[in-house]
Fold this sequence. Notes:
This protein is α/β, with parallel strands linked by helices and 200 residues long.
Amino acid sequence: MLAIGLTGNVGSGKSTVAAIWQQRRGAAVIDADRLGSEAVAPGSEALGRLAAHFGEQVLLPDGSLNRRRTAELAFRTDTDRQVLNSIVHPEIIRRIGLEMIEARRSGVKAVVVDAALIFEFGFDRHVDVLVVVDAPRELAVERMLAKGKMDRETVERVLAIQLPPEQMKEKADYVLRNEGDLEDLEKVALELYDRVVPAG
């Protein structure tokens, strides 16, 4: 089984690439964002620690995490961001490891770890191939605003603290440029997958 690390700045389109590989080629996908949501589910230790640090304002009326408000608060200062990471990241890493074991048992040819912070996690050491999805900055910002999860100020703060695209690309084995439409992205994504993942 080939382990592919898939990363890129917010709004780059990396999760779209992961979905293409899953739907068109049968790759197993481990979504770090999904695991992050599971790690802070209502009643979890992580959610309790976040509420203790940032206040009850990070909770929605049903007791779940208000992700938009948490992002606004956590990316105000380096200290707040470090607190968020220290609470959530270890649990995400543990869950990625468990899902990789399951993927190997299932017999898939490739597992894709879709994680914006793969370098910050240190998980780049646990994959065979690193792919960075790169998009023009303003296009990435527009995509994030369209999702409605962050305002422009928060998106800009997130981009400012993420590893710069040029540094990501230096560490990558392959770079996928995403500046066209979905059809263009699907074409280059499948071409790369077929080049990287052994046939048969």
